[in-house]
Amino acid sequence: MALTQVYGLIGSPVGHTLGPIMHDTAFKELGLNCIYHAFSVGKENAERAIKGALALGFGGLNVTIPLKELALQYITPDTWARRIGAINTIDSKGNGYNTDGTGAVRAFISPALSNIAYLLIVVMMAMAFRQRRRRLTSQGR
Question: Looking at 28, 43, 51, 68, which residue is catalytic?
């Protein structure tokens, strides 16, 4: 019997996330022997969680607040993630990515979006830029 490939979400809080239901459903529909679990991880345990998941052979991790910026220290970020200053995805090799921007751009060009969806995307992008500006300001840049 093949080993089950584990994927997960780290951050805090994560109890409200629908990620496990969505991913597990997709894995089942695709016939993949995988599972997705949400792990409640605070800032004080971020390094151990990331390094532990990689050491255990996790297929990948999604990263949410409050770990998106902190996680950069423990992985190899791609150029886009380094520029943004945050990641939301870690692959099985310890590479980090930020897919928030790409997803927003793809959503923006979708003809299926309503005006409300466009407004939500603009608000979310403004919040992300504000967070980035605060981070740079606190670092004296």
Answer: 68
> Any residues with CB less than 8 A from the CB of 98 and at least 6 apart, and which?
68, 77, 80, 81, 84, 86, 87, 88, 89
Q: What's the CATH fold of domain 1-98?
A: Rossmann fold (3.40.50)
**Active site (annotated) includes residue 51:** no
Angle, helix 115-138 to helix 100-108, in steps of 10 degrees: 150
- DSSP symbols for 46-94: HHHHHHHHHHTT-SEEEE-TTSTTGGGGGSEE-HHHHHHT--SEEETTS
From the CB of residue 126, how many other CB atoms can be counted at a distance below 10 Å? Answer: 10
pLDDT tens for each residue of 77-125: 999 899 889 999 999 999 999 987 666 566 556 666 566 665 566 667 7
